[in-house]
Amino acid sequence: MAEAPAIEFVSPGRFEVRNPSPGSPVPHAPIPAGATHSQPITGPDQLRLHTLEIARRARRSLLIYTPDLEPWLYDDATFVQACLEFVRAHPRNQLQVLLADPTRAIREGHRLVGLARRLTSKIALRRTNPEIDCGDCAFLIADDMSLIMRPNADQAAGLVSHQARGRVRQQRALFTQAWERGMIDPNLRSLYL
Predict the structure, then answer these.
(1) DSSP 129-149
(2) Is residue 191 part of a domain?
(3) Is residue 33 a part of any domain in this protein?
(4) Per-residue DSSP letters for 146-180?
(5) Which of 63, 128, 137, 192 has the fewest CB neighbours in a 10 Å radius?
(6) Residue 190 falls within a domain, yes or no?
């Protein structure tokens, strides 16, 4: 085996190392871009804005857990268009909606229900099983990263979290459990003849 040629090394200079003394406070580093951050949502305008933003950012899955597909939030033409663009962006993209009572959405001709009837392979709607108590909360999950959580579904207040894998994993597990026990409502299906 041949010997490798010698490498010439030139030092760029001398550097001083200052280790903190034991017991001294450690300075706080700035939060890097993309780190977990959450902010409160107060009011319907903020909630609509964040809901639309998360729908537009979604890349693989959108999950909606809602009492009745609140028209003031989910029956907005811009939001429904964002959902349409999301499901068309990739063949595997899925939108799943789990709601407690679809009566109002069906009676009033909710845009998202109409879209789901046209795109049955991309958008699925189910009713929650009355035997499962999931509380009074409502939430929206995009992929494994973003979450809007409303502890009280009757209020337009809550928390939006980005890059929050732990929180999202917890809510996704709740959604998956409720989805698996959810019921297919024939009124939510397409009525084309």
Answers:
(1) PTTS--TT-EEEEETTTEEEE
(2) no
(3) no
(4) EEEEESSTTSSEEEEEES-HHHHHHHHHHHHHHHH
(5) 192
(6) no
